[in-house]
Amino acid sequence: MPCYEEPSGLDRWIKPPSNLQHTMTDKELLWRASLMPRIKKYPFERVPKIAFMFLTRGPLPLAPLWERFLKGHEGRYSIYVHSLPSFQPHFHTSSVFYGRHIPSQVSEWGRMSMCDAERRLLANALLDISNEWFILVSESCIPLYNFSVIYHYLMKSKYSFIGAFDDPGPFGRGRYNNNMAPEVNITQWRKGSQWFEVNRKLAISIVEDTTFYQKFEKFCRPACYVDEHYFPTMLTIQAGNSLANRSITWVDWSRGGPHPATFGRADITEEFFKRMLEGHRCTYNDRNSSICFLFGRKFAPSAMEPLLHLAPKFLGF
């Protein structure tokens, strides 16, 4: 019986791993993911893909909506799921989520372990050279438009979508620690939503960082909420002109409290969709736009049935 031989052509170097359950340590993974070709033009026909990175504790209750959203667009997206390491997924082999869980570790809201999970997702997604746009979503997120609209919105954008604003109050600059200097001074300190979209170049900047990581790990401790400050501050310093300075994930803070509102079955009405989708104003490629949010959260599992029912009319899929 002939021995198996690895392909010796270009495919060996550009094909993504067939099995996401590798044995690399985080240090090895981040190093591998930071490698990038110096020649800009690809020597093959590259179809850029969106990497949807799900940061979740366990189940994906809205998976049927995502399955419908992605159907027919194979080859233009990739999926990566980071859950609690103890969670055992049970997806059918035909599901887009089957086999898409990456080696994970426990992550806690507001702590550096949350940023570690996000970097882990980015690094695994970077191993596929065709992934061009990297979107962090949770199990409570839904798409607000059909796949083609979202794909072209990202493809045509000159900027990556991450909020990074200077908040002078106690929950912004008030969290700054003077030990962050000289790498980060208080005028560079930024705050933004955890849910971001970055292009490949910025994704590599995030996974290859060691300078800012050490400062934030040491001096941005609870109640600093590092996941609100690390990426916005670092990217503002390194590539501020590449940021749209806004998130493309809609949330509702009108009810007050430390977390945005969660919507269940009774909330999902035609009036709710109109409120969520209409009346927004922002800039897109330096021009005024009414399409500002591509995703929405937070949706409870009970919202699934009415979402599936109303999605064709309001979301286009």
Number of strands: 9
User: How much helical structure, as a percent, in the residues?
Assistant: 25-40%
H/I helix tally: 10
Sheet with the most strands? 4 strands, mixed
The CATH class, by name, is: Alpha Beta
Domain count: 1
Shape: globular
Order of helices and strands: HHEHEHEEHEHHHEHEEEH
Structural class: alpha/beta
Question: Largest sheet, order of strands side by side?
Answer: 2-1-3-5
| End-to-end C-alpha gap | 50 Å
The oligomeric state of the chains shown is single chain
Q: Into which percentage range does the β-strand content fall?
A: 5-15%
Please give the CATH architecture: Alpha-Beta Complex
Mean pLDDT: 95
CATH topology category name = Spore Coat Polysaccharide Biosynthesis Protein SpsA, Chain A
Low-pLDDT runs of 5+ residues are none
Radius of gyration of CA atoms, rounded to a whole number:
20 Å
Protein model, in words:
- Helix content is 29%, strand content 11%.
- The chain contains ten helices and nine strands.
- It is globular.
- With 317 residues, the chain is an alpha/beta fold.
- It has one domain (46-314): Spore Coat Polysaccharide Biosynthesis Protein SpsA, Chain A.
- The mean pLDDT is 95.
- α4 packs across α6 (200-208).
- A four-stranded mixed beta sheet has the order 2-1-3-5, sandwiched between helices.
- The chain has helices at residues 11-14, 26-33, 63-70, 112-126, 147-156, 200-208, 211-219, 230-239, 270-277, 304-314; strands at residues 49-55, 77-82, 131-138, 142-143, 197-199, 249-250, 282-284, 287-289, 295-296.
